[in-house]
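Subject: mismatched residue count in predicted assembly?

I count 351 residues in my input, but I want to confirm that the predicted structure covers every chain. Input:
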Amino acid sequence: MSVDPPYLYPDYRSTELRAPKRPLLPLPGELHDLHAPVFGEDAVSPLDSDLTRRHGGEPLGERIIVHGRVLDEDGRPVRGSLLEIWQANAAGRYVHERDRHPAPLDPNFTGAGRALTDGEGRYRFITVKPGAYPWQNHPNAWRPAHIHFSLFGRAFTQRLVTQMYFPGDPLFEFDPIFQSVRDETARARMVSSFDLATTEPDWALAYHFDIVLRRTPFEE
Amino acid sequence: MRTPSQTVGPFFEFGLCDRPANEMDGGDVRVRGRVLDGAGEPVNDALVEIWNPQGGFGRCGTDVEGRFELLVRRVPHYEVMVFARGLLKPVLTRMYLPGETGAEDPTMVAQREEDGLRFDVHLAETAFFEL
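Triage response: the counts match. Full output below for your records.
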């Protein structure tokens, strides 16, 4: 069974008019040689990975550390690659003009961050736990709390946009976006784990989330 | 097992487009286009990425009319990846300059306009590669 969801997944209504209709063509072989853009230290400041210190005060919500490693399918660390995240605030509201959820915006929280992986593929963000929020897919539809992740890896074929979920969310079984990944083991890859060892006492809880990209197609 | 893809959703703009990235260094070709869905309606929440196979990368979110605009360096073809709400994984196509040979499908050839190129992505009609 494929790891990725299908293009057409009718339970997620927006896929119906947006899924490709023509048979897919084989991937041109030379795309395996294409490198991802390199983002240097100048593209990312240390403050970019702390989403709680962008404004005058502290955001409301449960302060959390989200950390892990970016690896390829061979288990090799993906070094010096860009991660970008974006998320709703603790009330489940996005800083976006089209988000109509009647939950409060937080003047101390935007919800976007970026980081580069270190020499062992590690990254670390400080943020607040996002809230669940309603959407219009079906009656009483709610998205489980999640953080969006965008990764470049080292190679074009490693480009990935995914979502990180939180363990034990009761909304999993009702969410067609989560369920669009049909393989149970693959779904579990998108769920972070609570990480007591990394919590900071009297300050923040921690979640661990490793991300596995396609294999690196060339030697570095 | 690798981590599965999920949709970019409708609210990526403040995370992915907060720093302008639609003009590549040394870009001299303006590419304008639209992303359209299976009913021919504009996709107003797509993220279009153009990868220059010789190095260089640009991206742009679509506006209410589904339009995007990028400035790229001239090469025979570009890799074009589109993310959107309703796309659980991105679609990948190519944009060939008019007159270039080798296009895998006629939908992959851009059209020349007065001051640049036009390249529309029809999600139901454009040919895409298997990722």
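The mean pLDDT of chain B is 94. Marking this ticket as 'not a bug'.
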